[in-house]
């Protein structure tokens, strides 16, 4: 006769296992997110006492780095995957903070491959309302409007912009800035991370975002993860390294992913030290 395990018992067992993993540190972990293996493998290789977990299609690696608790989340690529992975991470691990990191394409001609952007702000650059045009009049993305510009005016500007634009947690930003001198492969600067399920290769389009949104880089996950974290009131920051920059002919370098991961690991430790 088969024995059936109640779902509630399974859930309690999982929670107890997570608690036991971090009992020695007496701290909640920092979640470090990356969409792809090239954005997570280096971090996982640096962890000790690693335990791998899978929830649906999303993988997590629990461990410690320099004695501090870290969970690596492979979010998969895109806004929806990142939002789902962030929800799972918060519900399962109750993290002290979340850092979304990885590679990105440059929007600012002053930035070079290997430079790191600390996302003082992350913004959804894929939400628009298009102008009215008749059949045959064509389409011009440079005339599209930010969707929150045409929302009802009974909301405050802060409420409207918060739907698409998210500020980094001040303590996480400070922890990242405090160690930027340790990064030797490029500059570390604050900037705006633009996120959307679009890969932009049109230089006029990239210039539009840089001039109208102030974007430093673009990628496909940070803003959606930031949105979920903000709804759960979990401290969040996005940190991205330029893997290429079309605006100044900076060609793609696959080694940028590992460089960013190591820096982010050190940011996580510095943050946990400050809140211990």
Automatic annotation (TrEMBL):
Span of the signal peptide: 1-23
Keyword Signal recorded: yes
Alphabetical UniProt keywords: Signal
Domain of life, per lineage: Bacteria
Record carries keyword Signal: yes
Domain Nucleoside phosphorylase, chain residue ranges per copy: 30-248
InterPro entries: Nucleoside_phosphorylase_d, Nucleoside_phosphorylase_sf
PANTHER family (UniProt xref): 5'-METHYLTHIOADENOSINE/S-ADENOSYLHOMOCYSTEINE NUCLEOSIDASE, 5'-METHYLTHIOADENOSINE_S-ADENOSYLHOMOCYSTEINE NUCLEOSIDASE
Name of this protein: 5'-methylthioadenosine/S-adenosylhomocysteine nucleosidase
